[in-house]
Amino acid sequence: MELTQLDINKIRQEFPTLGEKVHGKDIVYFDNAATSQKPQSVIDRINHYYEHENSNVHRGVHFLSQTATNAYEHTRKLIQSMINAKHEHEVIYTKGTTEGINLVAHSFGEKFIHEGDEIIISYMEHHSNIVPWQLLAERKKAILKVIPVNDKGELLMEEYHKLLSPKTKLVSIVHTSNSLGTINPVKEIIEAARKQGAAILIDGAQVVPHQSIDVQELEPDFLVFSGHKMFAPTGVGVLYGKEELLNQMPPYMGGGDMIDTVSFEKTTFNDLPHKFEAGTPNIAGVIGLGAGVEFINRIGYDYISNREKELLDYGTERFNEIKGMRIIGTAEKKASVISFLLDDIHPYDAGTILDQLGIAVRTGHHCTQPLMKRFEIPGTIRASFAFYNTKEEIDKLVDGLQRVKSMFGKK
Ligand code: PLP
To answer: 128 CA to middle of ligand 1, Å?
Structure first.
């Protein structure tokens, strides 16, 4: 779909929050890697569910329950088609990326990780792709190995290949770094792990909102992502897993919906995907997630990624005009995230001043403390662009950064 500048203004109007004023100024929202804004279609869909369809799923023969179940399951089909999963039941609903990783760490870990086994992650993982593996390694006396990164924030692939061995049972890697924007060579990572017989989890939190992912082409064993970063509500996400593996994994949580029969002697479990969806789920969230996917389908990944690339290039060029600018994360392949430091100004101070100008950026370690340690910095200022951002907004941020500098007496 060809969209003009005029169209982007129209699309922006679909996002109520983008019309907000902050401290009397038009909001400039550059914290999209933390969470995206929501279009009216998603908000309306959630309202519609509560106003007209509210009911529990899978349990009722009555009209409302069936309507809610149909809408809830419709999202699964939309996700299946979006990531090109072979089977609908390979799509498991979760609370988000974090829960997806914890589910795999518990369930896959319980069954397949034993003493002395090795799990590989990288230096640029979000805490949610570090801590569950540390906990698992402690429980099972397994060993956690970490792929280092170079000064540009790229994985040292030769080191990765050296870390791999027949002892490697799982490789869990972020597709796109939330704090540096680095896009990792996941195809190569997956193929090399596969040769060693290891399973692979891809943390897709920062890629699925921006770029199309085909799990049959890429062939990870697991892919996890969050709804709230892709125009959908918080509290809902997806774990994709290969049927063969999911079938071998024990349940993560016990409760309603995940059982086949329950008796005090022996309980049997439901089929996929329900085996991993215990209890009343986030029905409104899942239905809202479906509306988020429909929104992405309407705009198109091509348009989204082309626009974001344009914003990244423009932002990088403009940022580099600022004296004292140090961009952290200069990988060859990058998503629309610019993390930076400005002279010796503390990120928190810069963020607070920018907020007064109506500009929302994130400051701090971005849940990647080991990576910050690697760069010997306390944190960064991070501007993360979504397709609905504009070059004019980037100009406002650049002006804002000049203002920050002058307030700190920097030339
Ligand atoms: N992984 C990455 C790369 C992320 O950026 C995030 C969130 O910022 C997460 C995992 C955790 O996602 P959530 O908090 O939605 O579970």
So the answer is: 7
For 31, 37, 246, the CA distances from 16, given in Å and listed in that order, are 16, 8, 39
- Pocket flag, ligand 1, residue 125 (CB < 6 Å): no
C-beta of 128 in contact with ligand 1 (< 6 A) = yes
- Nearest CA to 167 out of 207, 196, 130 is that of 196
Stated pTM of the model: 0.97
Cβ–ligand 1 contact at 182 (below 6 Å): no
Q: Is 367 a catalytic residue?
A: yes
Establish whether residue 124 lines the binding site of ligand 1, counting it when its CB lies within 6 angstroms of any ligand atom.
no
Per-residue pLDDT of the chain (411 residues; tens, 9 = 90+): 455 665 899 999 999 999 999 999 999 999 999 999 999 999 999 999 999 999 999 978 999 999 999 999 999 999 999 999 999 999 999 999 999 999 999 999 999 999 999 999 999 999 999 999 999 999 999 999 999 999 999 999 999 999 999 999 999 999 999 999 999 999 999 999 999 999 999 999 999 999 999 999 999 999 999 999 999 999 999 999 999 999 999 999 999 989 899 999 999 999 999 999 999 999 999 999 999 999 999 999 999 999 999 999 999 999 999 999 999 999 999 999 999 999 999 999 999 999 999 999 999 999 999 999 999 999 999 999 999 999 999 999 999 999 999 999 998
- The single-letter code of the amino acid at 269 is F
Which of 3, 8, 367, 398 does the annotation list as catalytic?
Answer: 367
Beta strand 28-29 with 359-360 is parallel
- Long-range (24+ apart) CB contacts under 8 A made by 48-52 are 49/283, 49/284, 49/287, 49/288, 50/284
DSSP state of 52: I
Helix, strand, coil proportions of the chain in percent (round to 5)?
45, 20, 35
CA of 340 to the centre of ligand 1 (A): 20
Domains of the chain: 5-30+300-407 (3.90.1150.10), 44-298 (3.40.640.10)
- Nearest CA residue ID for atom 14, ligand 1: 98
Question: How many Å apart are CA 170 and CA 238, to the nearest integer?
Answer: 19
Distance CA 402, CA 411 (A): 9
